[in-house]
Predict the structure.
Amino acid sequence: MKHSRLYSVAFNKCPRCAEGDFFITKSAYSFKFDKMNKHCPNCGENLVPEPGFYQGALYMSYAFYVVFMLAYFLVFVNLFGEYLDYFLFSIIPVLIILTPYFYRLARRSWLAIFISPRAEEVVQNIK
Ligand SMILES: [Zn+2]
């Protein structure tokens, strides 16, 4: 379903219209991975509601890291249980590689909490 919060968070879209891009670049692995549009290029929704708004994204980021590390730990224990000494050596590079991805995911999901998808388009999808 296109006009859902999950869609806009997952596909780098504006939480209001699900059309305009949230971050300027499509990929989390480019040099400008952290550059955001101040306003949605499609509907004009303000993507930076107030100064310091994205400090709250730290909590989202923390939650993503905790969930990922728990899942990684469970997979690691089940597949490589006898090499548990190497758990930290293996997870640290993975976390470093995932940092830009979680940074963007946390910002999109934090804003999606406060901005609901456009009401009339949600109603159209229900029919
Ligand atoms: Zn928009």
Remarks:
- The pocket of zinc ion is lined by residues 14, 16-17, 19-20, 40, 42-43, 45 (CB under 6 Å).
- The chain has one domain: 5-126.
- The chain is about 50% helix and 0% strand.
- Residues 5-126 form one domain.
